[in-house]
Amino acid sequence: MEKTFIMIKPDGVRRGLMGEIIGRIERKGFKITKAKLVKPNKELVEEHYIEHREKPFFNELVDYILDGLVMAMEVEGENVIEIMRLMIGHRDPKVALPGTIRGDFAHSLTENIIHGSDSPESAERELSLWFK
């Protein structure tokens, strides 16, 4: 079975959306094999988003993730990476389709509720960071 990393970001946790999001994952038939509610440290968040280090929004993104608790999850299932990305929806809430997590709940490019790995390589790297 394929595995992916899913993170409900601080705005999703604060807004009480964990149950809704976890329910969607489980109703899709995926299994949450690891989960933890955590306040990440700066080193972890910077390493997680290392590919964005040179981008102008990097510091804002890091500060946002450090602003509260996140729900980190390992999710398992057939084609889970691709299907979860479809369920999550576009990063920009103005174009995220209704029915997707971001389409239904996000209202900001930065505070966009959820993160999901975009490839098997990213999933492996991110899971190893969050679940050592």
How would you sum up this structure, described in words?
The chain has 132 residues and is of the alpha+beta class. The protein is 42% helix and 20% strand. It has seven helices and four strands; from the N terminus they run βααβααβααβα. The protein has helices spanning 10-14, 18-27, 42-48, 58-65, 80-88, 101-105, 120-130; strands at residues 2-8, 31-38, 70-77, 114-116. The radius of gyration is 14 Å and the shape is globular.
How are the SSEs ordered, and which strands pair?
Elements: E1 2-8, H1 10-14, H2 18-27, E2 31-38, H3 42-48, H4 58-65, E3 70-77, H5 80-88, H6 101-105, E4 114-116, H7 120-130
Antiparallel strand pairs: 1-3, 1-4, 2-3
Instruction: Report the β-strand fraction as a percent range.
Output: 15-25%
Structural class comes to alpha+beta
Output the CATH homologous superfamily: Nucleoside diphosphate kinase-like domain
User: Helical proportion?
Assistant: 40-55%
Average residue pLDDT: 97
How would you sum up the major sheet?
4 strands, antiparallel
What would the keywords be for this entry?
132 residues; alpha+beta; Alpha-Beta Plaits; 4-stranded antiparallel sheet; 7 helices; 4 strands
Could you write a compact summary of the structure shown?
The chain is of the alpha+beta class. 42% of the residues lie in helices and 20% in strands.
